[in-house]
Sequence to fold (439 residues):
Amino acid sequence: MAEMGRRNSDFGAFIEKFTLLPPPPTSSSQQLPLAGLTFAVKDIFDVKGYVTGFGNPDWARTHSAAVSTAPVVAAVLSAGATCVGKVVMDEMAYSINGENAHFGTPVNLCAPDRIPGGSSSGSAVAVAAELVDFSLGTDTGGSIRVPAAFCGILGCRPSHAVVSTSGVIPMAQSFDTVGWFARDPVILNKVGRVLLQLSDVHLVQPSHVIIPDDCFQLLSIPSDRLTRVIIKSVEKLFGPQVIKHVNIGNYVSDRVPSLEHFMDRSNVHQEYIPSLVALSSAMRCLQRYEFKTNHGEWVTTVKPNLGPGLSERVWEAVKSTDEHIGISHSVKTELQTALSTLLEEYGILVLPTVPGPPPKLQTQASLLETFRVRAFSLLSIAGVSGFCQVNIPVGTFDDLPVSISLIAKHGADGFLLNVVDILYSTLKEQVEVAEKQSY
Fold:
């Protein structure tokens, strides 16, 4: 009964509650950017005196308490925020579903019969349920962006390697990032300035806003309604001249020659973009290899109890070889160059975060396959390039959450957060207009 009470009170988000206070106030404390805000951390971050559980009881059982706190956690504490505990995550960060066979699945408040998205499921639910003001998570293949989209909140995956991952259990270092969730763009921006160590920067107008039409065709909901909201919002704020359209699949195919090694010529279905499917294959190849390097010995020695679906994925990684690893790195380099040319200094790519609404809880893996392929096609653009991406909720369709993402070049995180800040309310206005017109 106590367990049921806990789940009802925190929607299954927390794995352990405790309080870490910011440093004692000084005469300048009122200037602290995160003063008065509360946050939670994914169970992948070290907190001194607590075991970092990595979403799995066998991991927790075979590891000691952390002897120091991860620098990112310390940074937000020093900026005035109060930590209220650790939250549930997918085992070993190896899923985008958010279902945990051991600790339960945090409740998606937008759609309680559907998955919350992972692997930072508890981090997203804690924010969506207003249990905290913001939360910290990680994103390797999509673990900030997917739960943010499914739970109808903001989520930032920063540029790769600009926020410290020290004191964070690695998943696959070529893609691992520390990200964060918030319900409003002001807090998202404030947390970003602390973690990215940025001073206040003035808003720079985007030089061009690129809409990849082929990515919107992957959606399972009517895409024109979404693109209309985007175009009207951008036109209102920045003028119609900044909008450009592109076929990103063709662009990537032409400029990332190493993808040829990952192309599946039999996969010519209209519901996929072949070059982006190949991009996600290259990402998965390198991700598996790095996961094996990091955790293969522990998995083979301990033989942990892993949940369904997860077990197969982890053992597949443990048995993987280093074939195509060099080519995967070439794909990364070529994509970075190609997207840098496309976006230049102040360009933004706008695309769906995920291909549709969150799937129902405990959906069979085979039924999820088309969704997963489409999802990773979209997620791999920022994942492989290492560019920064922010998820923005844009209303609902059939009472289920809908989101878009903005991507900017590597290192343009401050610029991107400012654009999100100004675009957010205009998008909301345009969503309300579109919803009224549809009645």
Notes: The longest strand covers residues 388-397.
